[in-house]
Design a protein that fits this description.
This protein is about 30% helix and about 25% strand. The chain folds into three domains: about 35-330, Rossmann fold (3-Layer(aba) Sandwich); about 445-515, Luciferase, Domain 3 (Luciferase, domain 3); about 520-650, ANL, C-terminal domain (GMP Synthetase, Chain A, domain 3, 2-Layer Sandwich). The two termini are about 35 Å apart. Bound molecules: 5'-O-[(S)-ethoxy(hydroxy)phosphoryl]adenosine (WTA).
Length: about 650
């Protein structure tokens, strides 16, 4: 672990909300001594309640924890209406298109646009509180309007990332039983039009009986097929709607949205989030981790299809009354200076991105940041995967000019917002280290039985007390929720939330994330389940057996390495580019291009225990080119290891 420590910028600390470690420790102490009191105070201060809650936390049906019982609120009201008195003409969202087109939307305009969208959902489609709406959209303003419009009328949105295939979209529509799909003809990427609507058509061509209508936003105006009676064009229809729409009165615990994510089995999980707890934490983390101030411009480069886009493009910044930037394109087009040009142009104060993007920008444009005035930057953030020290250093020195704190934020779809992160004005930072839990978050690295791990030893990263923005359940599958998150670790005899990640704690108490301990892999910050990919590969008619593992990758963090055993082969083994093409084409149909493999190896067999369990550790080691250190004597056929090595290494 690096001993190097980077102290917060003194001028920044002076004006920060949390100014030093004493203040942090005080907050933590407060939370520890009176947990409910701590959250009660924050919930009263940070949420405009329509009517107050009667109890802070209900643990009676653990792990189905409930927060702010009987409280009434509306999340779109928190994000928009609440600001109109003081900020109606402030920029809420600054949009920049791939080709450089720009649009700024003030809070008052956002209010009108969201209300019109909400009225459209109600009046044209009969969408009511509790109905599910799937949003399959590019990074355009209407994606944010759609989410907020659902929140306004109490519909539950489920945003599906635009990179997912028709099959993946269909699975998600069916699991949620969605009534409406909101999409766009397509959008622009790297100067060219790309399409989304045909994917929706394909998804709806089989099953999906719950879907009544498809609302299509025209963005690139390319030709698309319109299905009579089902497809409705947004652009004209929305103009006729009223600018006013009463926010639905929602209970704290009503579901706000579902977001599907990968787990260790083949079927993605519909992570269900609540209203009050989620929006409270979205706002608080904006204030604590990004130290967002009224005049700041905040840019998170994620896609709204992921949790990072939900919490830190839409809900968090707007709940804090900030100005948030939404960008349709990619940071390397037209050149590797695009992101820095935008930072200069909009005087971005907080910039939040994934390590993969940092590695790409570093590799393709090491000196690009120097060409722009990046002096507006105050806080830099990373999320989604471990960052390596060289990328961290470049980000710190060249992008941040050695004056900005880097907040390496660890969290998950399930946690709703940041859990472990430096505080930019307080925490002495060790590079590539998530440091300490945020105030009120009881994150601990423990053994399965709840005992603490030794310094430097890997343990299970758990959250040992419920927190307001936590996942409430897996949509339609309470049992799976319990088993997935509360089935592995206990503390003081009680099941606690296990994140799926491993971590180590150093002698100073700093937490470093070591990565997933389950069969989830992380390619370019995209979370993928090996079981999901394996299920896709099995659709190839000549595959008898398959095992998917991750291999470290310089740019993507991890890449996908697939071992296959053929039903009928010609007896030759090894890396097979021809088969890779076939298999990747299936993967891109079943899941999407983000899950394509870099390497396919045809092997004579897989290393299995006598009970038939595949020993993935061996396969990972071979993919990495490592020596096999573990005991292979428990394998049914130990000789298979050598045969696989021979096949892979030639
Ligand atoms: C990983 C993304 C190291 C981790 C917000 C986690 C990280 C998974 C970090 C969640 C970080 C996230 N350092 N690893 N700072 N942040 N991860 O649900 O393995 O898409 O479990 O949420 O990303 O991915 P998800």
């Amino acid at each position: 672990m690096g001993k190097e420590i980077y102290y917060p910028n003194k001028d920044f600390s002076k004006q920060a909300r949390i100014k030093n470690m004493c203040e942090y420790n005080d907050l933590m102490e407060e939370a520890k001594s009176d947990y409910e009191g701590f959250w009660d105070k924050l919930a009263k201060e940070k949420i405009d309640w329509f009517s107050p809650y009667t109890k802070v936390l209900d643990e009676s049906n653990a792990p189905f924890y409930k927060w702010f019982i009987d409280g009434k609120l509306n999340v779109s009201y928190q994000c928009i209406d609440r600001h109109l008195d003081t900020k109606k003409n402030k920029a809420a969202i600054i949009f920049e298109g791939d080709r450089g087109d720009k649009e700024t939307v003030t809070y008052l305009e956002l209010y009108r646009n969201v209300n019109r969208f909400a009225n459209l959902l109600k009046n044209e489609f009969g969408i009511k509180k509790g109905d599910r709406v799937v949003i399959y959209m590019p990074m355009i303003l209407e994606a944010a309007y759609a989410m907020l419009a659902c929140a306004r009328i109490g519909a539950i949105h489920s945003v599906v990332f635009g990179g997912f295939s028709a099959e993946a979209l269909r699975d998600r529509i069916e699991d949620a039983n969605a009534k409406l799909v909101i999409t766009a003809d397509g959008a622009f990427r790297k100067g060219k039009a790309y399409m989304l609507k045909p994917v929706v058509d394909d998804a709806l061509s089989k099953g999906c009986d719950s879907v009544e209508k498809v609302l299509v936003v025209q963005r690139n105006f390319e030709d698309i097929t319109w299905v009579e009676g089902r497809d409705v064009c947004y652009n004209e229809l929305v103009k006729n709607q009223s600018n006013e729409c009463e926010p639905e009165v929602m209970d704290s615990e009503d579901p706000l949205f579902l977001l599907y994510t990968s787990g260790s089995t083949g079927k993605p999980k519909g992570v269900q989030h609540s209203q009050a707890g989620y929006i409270l934490w979205a706002r608080l983390t904006m204030e604590w981790v990004f130290d967002i101030k009224d005049n700041d411009t905040f840019w998170c480069t994620a896609d709204v299809g992921w949790i990072t886009g939900h919490t830190y493009i839409v809900y968090g910044p707007l709940a804090s009354g900030a100005t948030t930037v939404m960008f349709e394109g990619v940071p390397t087009y037209p050149d590797a200076g695009r992101a820095w040009k935008m930072v200069e142009e909009y005087k971005i104060n907080q910039f939040y991105t994934a390590p993969t993007a940092i590695r790409v920008l570093h590799k393709t444009g090491e000196d690009e940041p120097k060409k722009y005035d990046l002096s507006s930057l105050k806080v830099l953030g990373t999320v989604g995967e471990p960052i390596d020290p060289p990328a961290w250093k470049w980000y710190y020195e060249v992008v941040g000019g050695s004056k900005c704190a880097i907040v390496d934020t660890w969290w998950q779809t399930e946690t709703g917002g940041h859990m472990i992160s430096p505080l930019p004005g307080a925490t002495p930072i060790k590079p590539a280290c998530a440091t300490f839990p945020l105030p009120g978050i009881m994150a601990e690295v423990i053994n399965k039985d709840g005992t603490p791990v030794e310094v430097g030893e890997k343990g299970y990263l758990c959250i040992t007390k419920p927190w307001p923005s936590m996942i409430r359940t897996i949509w339609g599958d309470d049992e799976r929720f319990k088993k997935s998150y509360f089935g592995d670790c206990v503390k003081d005899g009680k099941p606690v939330y296990f994140s799926g990640d491993g971590a180590v704690v150093d002698e100073d108490g700093y937490i470093t994330i070591t990565g997933r301990m389950d069969d989830v892999i992380n390619v370019s910050g995209h979370r993928l389940g090996t079981a999901e990919i394996e299920a896709a590969v099995k659709k190839h008619s000549n595959i008898a057996e398959v095992a998917v593992v991750a291999r470290p990758d310089e740019i993507k963090g991890e890449s996908i390495f697939i071992y296959v055993v053929l039903k009928e082969g010609d007896g030759s083994f090894g890396i097979n580019a021809e088969l890779a093409k076939e298999i990747n084409s299936i993967i891109s149909t079943e899941i999407g291009n983000i899950a394509k493999a870099d390497t396919i190896a045809v092997v004579p067999g897989l290393p299995k225990t006598r009970s038939g369990k595949i020993m993935r550790r061996i396969l990972r080691a071979i993919a990495k080119g490592e020596e096999i250190k573990q005991d292979t004597s428990t394998l049914e056929d130990p000789s298979v290891v050598e045969a696989i090595q021979k096949a892979v290494n030639g």
